[in-house]
Design a protein that fits this description.
heterodimer; A: 290 residues; mainly alpha; MetI-like fold; 2 domains; extended; B: 261 residues
Chain lengths: 290, 261
């Protein structure tokens, strides 16, 4: 059968509507459940945003005037920076306090979370315990950190104790989720092989689970450290935990000194960027070694 | 050789442990943290919470007021995340190594994102307090700036991850820059981006409470008000509504993520 004959057969046997290209286009994006959900999500985000802008409590501040003053304020803040109520050295010391808060909470959180995450991982413990811990942790994470700190502050008094305990609480919640998920990614075969050779639970944990998920654990912990630095600033401002956040709160709320707020912002920015670079470096080194 | 390896490893771990303990001790002194008090305050707080921190019938009367403030806070969080996502999309397209116009623009947009991301939301709130005062816009812009910085980085990573193959294919067929962006990059990274936006909404609601306490708006202010007037029953009711809202949003976004990813 040559080409002409076969074409003829095809054309005579196909219904006419398939041959008239242009009138019936092939649907490039079929309407699946996923695409419907994507559209509904986008539409509802858009509508809620519009509704939000219409109903905000503007308290007499115009949007565009506000933006205009904001730009002016940015210029004063970042160009005419000065120190008035404290010196460069004090600011540095205060940043170190904030870093200390972040470090302690991350460290305490990591130690506690490591133990609990072992029980929360589905492939290591019973599903009862796992579900109980995960549900409890979801609740801990749902309460914002500042509320934990304020709740602890009632019995411990405002200060570093309440801040550290409250922030640790939230860090534990976050890290348990992250750690247990990285434990669950471990290949079941490895655990089975070790169990098969007679290893007990602790041997499985120390010889297989921890070494193989170490990189994840470290990068999650560093991520939490970065977050905790931000939280520590916030707790200094909102819960009297001291550090650079408290200085900023005073400069902004009591002295109303824009230029000093600018100076503090530079400090925060520098340290946050340094932390980020440090974390990226460490993550990069770990990947090379593995 | 083998014993050497293990000995070296043990020395290394000991060194790391030593440094950690040292840094920890330094931080404890620096932050003036009372370790013993830290341990004792925990059971005390639980004890206090169980005996004082629960809503009563009288506090339920405040529920409509609380829900109205909560709704506003949720709307501020959603609006901030959505508008930030639109801006971040633009910056991410300029910033990603796959779709960048030139290196200069790429560096600039990455730099701007780093700047906005690394100033904490609390710091933004205190900075913006000068410009917008006690209106919802202070919180909105504080959340917007941080969301913008974070989403730009997340979107850049998404585009880098998803885009390369399809961009190369489309460029080979002679498609223009805009065709490549609109027909390949955006559609293929959209589900991942939506997932990030939903994550941002969750984060924003958590931060909105904090911003509210600092700037005197929304649900955070309401909590602060009752907390400082020692009306813990109403304060606990506010915490419960916040937790409810966050869990609900988490549930919705988990559902959306499961379907679209």
């Amino acid at each position: 059968m040559n080409l002409e004959e076969s074409t003829k057969i095809v054309t005579t046997n196909t219904p006419k509507k398939f041959l008239t290209a242009g009138t019936n286009r092939i649907k490039l994006r079929p309407l699946t459940k996923a695409s419907i959900v994507v559209r509904v999500t986008l539409m509802s985000l858009l509508l809620l945003t519009l509704y939000g802008f219409l109903t905000f409590n503007y308290a007499g501040v115009g949007l565009f005037e506000g933006i205009w003053t904001m730009l002016g304020n940015f210029k004063t803040m970042f160009v005419n920076t000065h120190f008035k109520h404290f010196t460069f050295g004090t600011a540095l010391y205060q940043v170190l306090i904030t870093l200390g808060l972040a470090l302690l909470t991350t460290l305490f959180g990591a130690i506690i979370a490591l133990f609990l995450a072992l029980f929360a991982a589905k492939n290591l413990g019973s599903s009862y315990v796992s579900n109980a811990i995960k549900g409890f942790v979801a609740f801990i994470r749902a309460v914002p950190t500042v509320l934990w700190v304020l709740i602890f502050a009632v019995s411990a008094g405002l200060g570093s104790v309440a801040a550290i305990v409250g922030m640790t609480f939230h860090s534990v919640g976050y890290l348990i989720k992250a750690y247990s998920e990285s434990f669950e990614e471990l290949d079941d075969g490895v655990i089975e092989a070790l169990r098969g050779s007679g290893a007990n639970w602790w041997q499985v944990v120390f010889q297989a689970v921890l070494p193989s998920s170490m990189t994840y654990l470290i990068s999650w912990t560093f991520l939490r450290f970065e977050i905790n630095f931000g939280v520590a600033i916030a707790m200094g401002a909102a819960a009297g935990a001291g550090g650079i956040g408290y200085e900023m709160f005073m400069a902004s709320g009591f002295y109303l000194d824009l230029k000093e707020v600018g100076a503090i912002t530079y400090f925060i920015l520098t340290f946050a960027i340094l932390l980020e670079i440090f974390a990226t470096k460490i993550k990069g080194r770990l990947k090379v070694r593995m | 050789m083998k014993t050497d390896f293990f000995a070296k490893k043990r020395r290394q771990s000991l060194l790391i442990l030593f440094v950690l303990v040292l840094v920890c001790y330094g931080s404890i002194i620096l932050t003036d943290y009372d370790v013993a008090k830290g341990f004792t305050s925990f059971p005390m707080a639980i004890d206090w919470g169980l005996s004082n921190f629960y809503p009563t019938e009288a506090s339920l009367a405040k529920l409509p007021e609380i829900l109205a403030e909560l709704l506003q806070t949720v709307l501020v969080s959603i609006a901030a995340a959505t508008v930030a996502a639109v801006c971040a999309m633009l910056f991410a397209i300029f910033g990603s190594s796959i779709t960048k116009v030139n290196n200069f623009m790429s560096t600039i947009s990455r730099g701007i994102a780093t700047l906005f991301r690394n100033i904490d939301v609390a710091a933004w709130a205190m900075i913006l307090l000068f410009s917008f005062g006690q209106s919802a816009l202070t919180g909105y812009f504080a959340l917007f700036f941080v969301s913008f910085g974070f989403l730009t980085r997340a979107f850049i990573e998404t585009i880098d991850e998803v885009g390369s193959g399809s961009v190369e294919a489309l460029t080979a067929t002679g498609a223009s820059y805009f065709t490549v962006v609109f027909q390949s990059v955006i559609p293929s990274s959209l589900p991942q981006m939506i997932s990030w936006v939903l994550f941002m909404v969750e984060t924003n609601i958590r931060s909105a409470t904090l911003v509210g306490i600092l700037t005197g708006t929304g649900i955070g202010f309401l909590f602060d008000l009752y907390y400082k007037s020692l009306n813990y029953n109403v304060a606990s009711l506010i915490v419960i509504t916040i937790v409810g809202a966050i869990l609900l949003i988490e549930y919705i976004s988990n559902y959306v993520r499961r379907v679209i990813l």
